[in-house]
Amino acid sequence: AVFFFLAANGCYRGMKDTRTPLISSIMSNAVNLALNPVFVWVIGWGVGGVAWGTTIAQYFSAFYLLARMIQLKMFDPRDMLRPPSKKNLVMLGESCGTLILRQSFDRISINLLTIFTVNLGNAHVAALEVIKRIWQLGSSFTWPVCIASSILVTDFVSKGEWASMRGIAIRLVQVGCAMGLFSCAVICLTSPFIIPMLSPSPEIFEGITHNLLPLCVAIISGTLLDVTESIQLGMRQYKSILLGSIAGMIFMSAALLLKNQFMAAAVGVSVAAGLRSVLILYWGFLITRLVVVMTFFVRRLR
Q: Alpha-carbon distance 133 to 143, whole Å?
């Protein structure tokens, strides 16, 4: 159900229809909210009831999107019985295969960073999880911009309007920078209230608040990278995104190969100092990817 929901979302976005996925998500959440109390307290299924409520809501959303696709003649169920053509398989492999590799390299890099954090201590791991939740708060402002970037650029590319595409691409990068600054402002203003809600530990609170500057720098870099990659997706420049992820993984691997010297100075230090090391590593990973992607992006705009 989740796989079909994500695939159908991509189809609707390709048709410049963001309203239908929004309606689907609202209906899915409504079904989930209605079923969870029934399964948990009325029937008495406990945690399993939450899982069943979420699963049913996901299938409800998937069937709604499928019904709308059939109604709008975007999808014919009889096509499921026909094997895909060689041309379609090549197009799918070029896009999906490249992006799957990119996602794999990114996961490897993040796992390497997690391994580094685990070696610092449990408090550092807990602080990193709090930072991830804060990062998700900032990403919630960036995600709509990324979706709009891909849709707008794809539309101009499909029409062959390259001059208009260059103009909107530059504006989108500017919007990405502005959204990164806005996310940092929101995080700085709300962190005194959010961090205690996520972790009551004074040590973790002090460690994160002392590293808001490197966290904001990483968020701005990540926001600019997300928007630029979304534009590249609209331009069908999949290989440049893949090369950026490979470069980021190489940077992370090279940094951790020096762990005997790097971690010797980091193990046993405070949460604030350990988090600073983690954020510097992650910032270097983002900047490496951003430099590679921006290089191809600027060359493409010329």
A: 15
Burial class (CB in 10 A: 0-12, 13-18, 19+), 299: exposed
- Write the single-letter amino acid at 61: S
Mapped onto helix, strand or coil, the DSSP state of residue 18 is: coil
Q: Each residue of 153-176: b (16+ CB within 10 Å) or e?
A: bbbbeeeeeeeebeebbeebbebb
| Strand stretches in the chain, DSSP E | none
Q: Which residues contact 201 (CB under 8 A, 6 or more apart)?
A: 123, 126
Q: Which residues of 93-116 are buried (b: 16+ CB within 10 A; e: fewer)?
A: eeeeebeeebeebbeebbebbeeb
Q: Amino acid letter at 86?
A: K
CA distances from 93 to 89, 104, 213, 231 (A): 6, 15, 41, 20
pLDDT in 10s for each residue of the chain, 302 residues: 677 777 788 778 777 787 888 888 888 889 999 998 888 888 888 888 888 998 899 889 888 888 888 888 877 777 777 787 777 777 777 778 788 888 899 889 888 888 888 877 788 888 888 888 877 777 777 877 888 888 888 888 888 888 888 888 888 888 888 888 888 888 888 888 888 887 788 888 888 888 888 888 888 888 889 889 888 888 888 888 889 999 999 998 888 777 655 554 445 567 788 888 888 888 889 999 999 998 988 887 77
Tokens representing 64 are 């709604």
For residue 140 the two structure tokens come to 């919630």
